[in-house]
């Protein structure tokens, strides 16, 4: 092998060695770099995790503070009373939903009626009260809002820049007070009439004491007026007890059939006097839990009322029916009927559709109010269907009492309304004409 070949071989070996060394160095360097990168990434992740944990901890601390603020915000916002904080420029700083519902805030400014009082509070720091009538609220048709009472006072003695206004709906109190005044006025008027009549009758008796016919005539009228006043006072006492009682004190099982029989017996004399036929259906054997005397009076009031407002030679029907867990007693007449605008008020104390006719029949104006509250205190419902010129149907619905269930059901299903026309088409074969049932009972009907 020549010198040239040797040199070429050495060059080749050298090149290979260099390449191998280069590869080895590249591998080492790459490994070192990769290791360094991996180590850096591991440290970066650790640092990021630590930073994230720090931020979470800081965020949690901030959230706790924010939650307290939110609790205060929601507590104020859900307060049923209106709360408004206002500054000296009449701008609302804080106001809850009730304040807007009560008409206290309009366009983020306190309404003018309240702002005038707030200006006085800003001036001398003395708290003040006021009552205002908000604008008509069409969003609450079932709960008319017509009176709001407010308390206006400094927010704090340490800062005179703000005034706080507390407001609440006063409409129900106004309505109750108005009803109380009306009731007192009505009672005074209703008692004044028989008292005045008694006074005049006594004078007539004194003047005619030597005339037996005069004494007999005016004595009868005096007894009638005395009985009317006694009945009214008795019904007022009963009504007061019913309205004030949360539940019947000593309820007992009562036969629905017995209640209807006794009520018809009370009304028979009055019906015969007016030429009215009393009809009823067969027994139901149903029981309800309650006070038998109150129930008899309630049904008797409805029957007498129907008789007084029916033309002669017509009938008044009393029926009973068990529907599921309810028993319904209905009294239907074919009388003059009740106009729609009066139907919602006939259960009010002393309300009469026909004042003259009611007085002529001896009604006290309390009969239907007693019916309503008697039914309510027995856990039942009362409804009315009426059409002028056709007649009326009063429906009393009560929970059925089962012998193995001593407690009154919590709820009573909604009752169906049976019209007088349906009664007219009922099977007369099931109706029995009532005869005489004992001694006549004083007229306790309510003039509707």
UniProtKB/TrEMBL annotation:
Keywords from the UniProt entry: ATP-binding, Cell membrane, Kinase, Membrane, Nucleotide-binding, Phosphoprotein, Transferase, Transmembrane, Transmembrane helix, Two-component regulatory system
Disordered, as annotated region: 425-448
Boundaries of every Histidine kinase domain copy: 186-402
Enzyme class: transferase
UniProt-annotated location(s): Cell membrane
First-listed, main subcellular location of the protein, grouped into a coarse class: membrane
Protein name, UniProt field: Sensor-like histidine kinase SenX3
Species this chain originates from: Corynebacterium terpenotabidum Y-11
High-level lineage: Bacteria, Bacillati, Actinomycetota, Actinomycetes, Mycobacteriales
């Amino acid at each position: 092998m020549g010198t040239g070949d040797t040199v070429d071989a050495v060059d080749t070996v050298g090149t290979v060695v260099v390449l191998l060394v280069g590869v080895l160095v590249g591998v080492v360097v790459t490994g070192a770099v990769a290791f360094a990168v991996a180590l850096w990434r591991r440290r970066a992740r650790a640092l990021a995790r630590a930073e994230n944990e720090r931020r979470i901890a800081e965020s949690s601390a901030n959230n706790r503070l924010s939650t307290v603020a939110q609790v205060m915000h929601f507590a104020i916002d859900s307060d049923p009373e209106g709360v408004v904080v206002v500054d000296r420029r009449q701008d609302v700083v804080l106001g809850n939903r009730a304040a807007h519902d009560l008409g206290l805030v309009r366009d983020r400014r306190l309404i003018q009626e309240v702002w005038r009082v707030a200006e006085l509070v800003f001036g001398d720091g003395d708290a003040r009260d006021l009552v205002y009538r908000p604008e008509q609220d069409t969003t609450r048709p079932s709960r008319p809002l017509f009176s709001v009472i407010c308390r206006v006072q400094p927010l704090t003695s340490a800062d005179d820049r703000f005034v706080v206004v507390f407001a609440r709906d006063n409409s129900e109190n106004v309505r109750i007070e108005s009803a109380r005044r009306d009731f007192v006025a009505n009672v005074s008027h209703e008692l004044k009439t028989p008292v005045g009549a008694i006074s005049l009758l006594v004078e007539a008796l004194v003047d005619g004491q030597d005339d037996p016919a005069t004494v007999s005539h005016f004595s009868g009228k005096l007894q009638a007026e005395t009985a009317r006043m006694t009945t009214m006072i008795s019904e007022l006492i009963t009504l007061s007890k019913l309205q004030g009682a949360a539940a019947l004190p000593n309820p007992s099982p009562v036969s629905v059939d017995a209640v209807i029989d006794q009520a018809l017996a009370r009304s028979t004399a009055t019906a015969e006097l007016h030429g009215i036929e009393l009809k009823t259906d067969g027994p139901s054997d149903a029981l309800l839990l309650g006070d038998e005397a109150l129930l008899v009076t309630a049904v008797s009031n409805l029957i007498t009322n129907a008789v007084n407002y029916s033309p002669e030679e017509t009938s008044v029907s009393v029926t009973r029916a068990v529907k599921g867990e309810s028993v319904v007693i209905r009294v239907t007449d074919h009388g003059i009927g009740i106009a729609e605008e009066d139907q919602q008020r006939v259960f009010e104390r002393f309300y009469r559709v026909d004042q003259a006719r009611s007085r002529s029949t001896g009604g006290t104006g309390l009969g239907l109010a007693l019916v309503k509250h008697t039914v309510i205190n027995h856990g039942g419902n009362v409804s009315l269907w009426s059409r002028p010129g056709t007649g009326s149907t009063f429906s009393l619905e009560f929970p059925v009492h089962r012998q193995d269930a001593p407690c009154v059901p919590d709820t009573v299903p909604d009752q169906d309304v049976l019209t007088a026309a349906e009664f007219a088409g009922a099977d007369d074969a099931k109706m029995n004409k009532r005869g005489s049932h004992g001694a006549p009972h004083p007229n306790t009907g309510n003039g509707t």
